[in-house]
Amino acid sequence: MAAGRELLLLLLSTAALAGIASASGAFLSDTVFQGSAGSTGRSLLQAKKSCPVNFEFQNYTIITSKCKGPKFPADKCCSSFLEFACPFKDYLNDDSSDCASTMFSYINLYGKYPPGLFASECKGDKNGLPCANVSVKAVNAANGSYRAQSSLLALVTLICGLVTLLFH
Fold it and tell me: Which pTM does this prediction carry?
């Protein structure tokens, strides 16, 4: 019986730790595309900090419902990309984080887009892609999902702690 309790405790602790581990201007900088278009240089040798936004659970239908192949129309693909990405512009423009590469990994996973599609199709100016026309509603919706997920993680951690105290 004690071995069963220890195994349950180990599994709950592992789940809690795994959950914890996963847990600037009006433009998207052109450097956002470096992760998807392939970049050369020293960035591979420099460690990047983990992105505070969890892109795994974002709603990608904004892009996947409008940007469809085989032609991938630039106007629809770029407008939907901006609608999705602009709420995260401060995180994506941070070159010291892995936010841009993480976001593009999930965009390509859910949309099965050819590599570099958005980098080659979406053109901005010297500052990058404009985010001025993106609604505030999109920002609130994008951040709301992350807040709800953080609350759920805190609840799971609390329950694991209580179960640990109960069986210890």
Answer: 0.57
